[in-house]
Amino acid sequence: MRVFANPVGSGTLWFDNLSTADGTPVAYDPQARAFLPMPPFCANRSVIGCNWIAPEQGAFCRACAMTALAPDPSIDNAILNWAKTEAAKRWAIDNLGRWHWFRPEDPGARPVFHMLAEGPTPVPMGHAQGVVTISVAEADPVLRTTRREALEEPYRTMIGHMRHEIAHMLWWRLSLREDFLDAFREMFGDERISYPDALQHHYQNGPPQDWRNYYLTSYASAHPHEDWAETAAHLLHLTDLTDSFVASGLTSPELPSPGWDPYSETDAQRLIHIAASIAVGVNHVNRSMGLSDLYPFVLSSYARHKLAFVHGWLRRGAQGL
């Protein structure tokens, strides 16, 4: 994610800012990829702290307009968790906008979000026919950590959930192309095998012993759909991790140039190599503070080929449909 210029003075702004350091209200324009000091602001600004502009006064911004169902406000912490969830969605949507997804120049369908709070029963997250269902309860760090440990996952964040579930939606859009399906099945396998049966087998028996040789996560081994979603999410992790590193003014001998743009890189293997090198370095920095690794994954050669495959399609897919 980029670091942005202050439109009314000196200094910089971060992606989630609602105002400048001196208190001037600002809002993010995803089309211009810049902050503006003037309305119209999103109608959700006072409700959940959305900091994007709207097309007109009283309207929702581009990201909030994708939410068809909001959580029940009578459930404890629903609004607070929803605010955190929408912030993660804005981040993921803006990342994909760097490759023209869900912007005005994208002729395809936008995702529709159902943001649901949890009562006594957990909300299963998922995607079906363009609709992405998200449990806003997972914005709570205690609940999220409890589930991550129960599932023995090395990483679980709301931005991670967004990238994974939106990746399913992107597959659904790309599957309209016959050339994509043929290439996908050659790389990931035949997604027409029973999804419920595959998941049941995964949860009953676990992943194959050699899963690390072929998959980024154990869950990716459950079914080709999940392999795609995990791989696409990791491509977004690695690309944006690197973009944020560059935008923050940090440097590495691996970078091609000081102003290098990871989202404009056409050589997927080059991008993956640079991103992995930066991740290893930041992991080392995190350990100096007793924190978990930022990117606790190992990229096998097979996983790198899958990442490159996804990179090729996501870079050209939005305007190619």
Q: Based on DSSP secondary structure assignment, what is the total number of beta strands?
A: 8
Overall structural class, as computed from helix and strand content, comes to: alpha/beta
Mean pLDDT: 95
Largest sheet: 4 strands, mixed
Helical content band: 40-55%
Instruction: Provide the domain count.
Output: 3
Description:
- It contains 9 helices and 8 strands.
- It is α/β, with parallel strands linked by helices and 321 residues long.
- It has 3 domains: 61 residues, no CATH class; 112 residues; 145 residues, no CATH class.
- The strands form 3 sheets. A 4-stranded mixed β-sheet has the order 5-6-8-7, covered by helices on one side.
- β3 and β4 form a beta hairpin.
- α4 crosses α7, α7 crosses α8 and α7 packs across α9.
- It is globular and about 55 Å long.
- It starts with a strand and ends with a helix.
Give a short synopsis of this structure.
This protein has 321 residues and is of the alpha/beta class. It has 3 domains: 1-61, no CATH class; 63-174; 177-321, no CATH class. The chain is built from 9 helices and 8 strands.
List the helices and strands and how they pair.
Layout: E1 4-5, E2 12-13, E3 27-29, E4 34-36, H1 45-48, E5 67-69, H2 78-97, E6 112-116, E7 126-128, E8 131-135, H3 141-150, H4 158-174, H5 178-188, H6 195-205, H7 224-247, H8 268-287, H9 301-320
Parallel strand pairs: 5-6, 6-8
Antiparallel strand pairs: 1-2, 3-4, 7-8
